[in-house]
Amino acid sequence: MSIVAGFDVGSLSTKAVIIKNNKLAGSAIIKSGPKPVESANKVMKKLLDETGLLQTDIQASVGTGYGREKISFIDKAVSEISCHAKGAQWFVPSARTIIDIGGQDCKVIKLDKDGNIKKFITNDKCASGTGRFLDVMAKVMNIDVSELGKLSQKSTKPISFASICTVWAQADVIKHINSRRPAEDICAGINVAMANRVSMLTNVIKVENDICMTGGVAKNSGVVKALSSILGCRIKKIKKTDPQLVGAIGAALFAQEYR
Amino acid sequence: MKTAGCDIGSRTAKAVIFENNTIISSAVIPAKLDPIESSETVIKMALDQANLTMADIEKTVGTGYGQQEIPFANCLESEIVCHAKGAWWNIPSARMVIDIGGQDSKAIKMDENGKVVRYTYNDKCASGTGRFLEIMADALHVELDDMGKVGKTYKEQLHISNQCVIFAETEVVSLINEEKDVADILNALHISLANRVASLARSLTIAPDVIMTGGVAKNSGVFDALSEGIGLPVKALEGIDPQINGALGAAIIASEL
Q1: CB of B64 within 8 A of CB of B8?
Q2: Distances (CA, A) of B257 to B2, B4, B59
Q3: Which residues of B touch A168 (CB under 8 A)?
Q4: pTM for the predicted model, two decimal places
């Protein structure tokens, strides 16, 4: 019997999973606090409560994300790039490109035919093309960010933005709301703008099939659709789990090997 | 001959009336939704101040983001050329202008005749623009016009690590929650903004005299931090609101037509 845990401490959300005998046995997501160690402890407690396990049941655990080195109860810290690559391939073994869009950053990872990391590029400097962009726009629209995908489905004429900067785009959205553009067109425009910004990274790294998306933004069908259209490729969905957990799952898989 | 310069920016509109190598009057207003309305309102304000009408003006040059919409402009000129002209007219030893406006920033190099030699600008990223200060003023509940003065009273040297305005705002909120002093936060923000623009300017070869123009020049914190950032003392326009520099340059160009 193998019971391992993986932790992914992000700037906005902290994720944890248990993998038992190579199967996902439980997960937890919480909002990150200012101190990564506290976030890790909190999500660990939630995970144990949900699975009914004790900390002593966990044979090995790996941490990733911001502040991973500071988490006292993990056995090893592994980079987010490695964990996302590992986790994505568990669900999509044919994955050669992984586009991970998190709360405050975006990464594009390319793998070779053996699943090793070949190249990667990250944006963690500009809010545009990260979950933050969507959060800002959703707030202006007075909707939950999780509705952006669904609401955009009926759009026939997405709004366009003069600039990729989140600040200027926010002002544009306000203008469009005041001009009474339909909500679906504004939402669709937001999703397209997001995808356009992400494509600036994929242009540098040149995607290869199969492509999959991880991170919370992968749950926005509008962004997935727009990105797929820009790349001219189908994006394989990670269906069996919340894509936001892929980093933590990768960490747990590393723990399984470590054990 | 009386001439006029009209600078329609994204956040403010400016007008200058010029005659005999002297500024007769000037006006600055917040930009209206319609740039035509902005231009007509601001020019009227400047004309009223000088007890003149449009009929008294022989030539008008328009500039700025909304220049195409100025109905009374005889010709248009780029902001780059206008800013160089205005600063050089005021300070003939000027060889570089660093202009930080509401939604962009520019660095312009001139020769000894005020002619533009090279330039660079940022109008894509809100970082390094007046908007950065507006957003932070909101976050800190400080009036935009007080930021410079308050920032000067700082005691602790803080550091804002994010250049992106959105991420920097979150950093500011964290600092507020850590009960850091507003003056200390403002000082760090001024340095951050100045460094971003200094970086832009450094892509050109910086040579004195460097003049700072645009509304943000009125923030003494940013002004001083910019000098630090470029490693040279920055000069202010003499006796002129730095915000009207573009319109001034336009009016001077009109007088040379």
Answers
A1: yes
A2: 12, 12, 8
A3: 103, 126
A4: 0.92
Contact B166 A164 (CB under 8 A): no
Nearest-neighbour CA in chain B from A165: distance (Å): 6
Confirm or reject contact between B174 and chain A (CB < 8 A): yes
Provide CATH code, domain A1-92+240-259.
3.30.420.40
The answer to whether the bond into A210 is cis (omega within 30° of 0) is yes
Chain mean position to CA A114: 23
| Numbered ranges of CATH 3.30.420.40 in chain B | 1-91+239-257, 93-236
Nearest by CB to residue B131, choosing from A104, A125, A167, is: A167
CATH class of B1-91+239-257: alpha beta
Let me know if the fold of A1-92+240-259 is the same as that of A95-237.
Answer: yes
Domains of chain A, residue spans: 1-92+240-259, 95-237
Own/partner pairs, A33-39, CB within 8 angstroms, 24+ separation: A34/B174, A34/B177, A35/A67, A36/A9, A36/A65, A36/A66, A36/A67, A36/A68, A36/A70, A36/A71, A37/A67, A37/A70, A37/A71, A37/A72, A39/A9, A39/A14
User: Which residues does chain A have within 8 Å of residue B179's beta carbon, measured at their own beta carbons?
Assistant: none
CATH topology of domain B93-236: Nucleotidyltransferase; domain 5 (3.30.420)
Torsion of CA B237, B238, B239, B241, to 10 degrees: 0
Structure tokens at A130: 């990260």
Going from the C-alpha of A179 to that of each of A104, A186, B10, B178, the distances in angstroms are 30, 11, 18, 40
Q: Give the homologous superfamily in CATH for domain A95-237.
A: ATPase, nucleotide binding domain (3.30.420.40)
Is the complex ipTM higher than 0.90?
A: yes
pLDDT of chain A along its 259 residues, tens only? 899 999 999 888 999 999 999 999 999 999 998 888 899 999 999 999 999 999 999 999 999 998 788 888 899 999 999 999 999 999 999 999 999 999 999 999 999 988 899 999 999 999 999 999 999 999 999 999 999 999 999 999 999 998 899 999 999 999 999 999 999 999 999 999 999 999 999 999 989 999 999 999 999 999 999 999 999 999 998 988 999 999 999 999 999 998 7
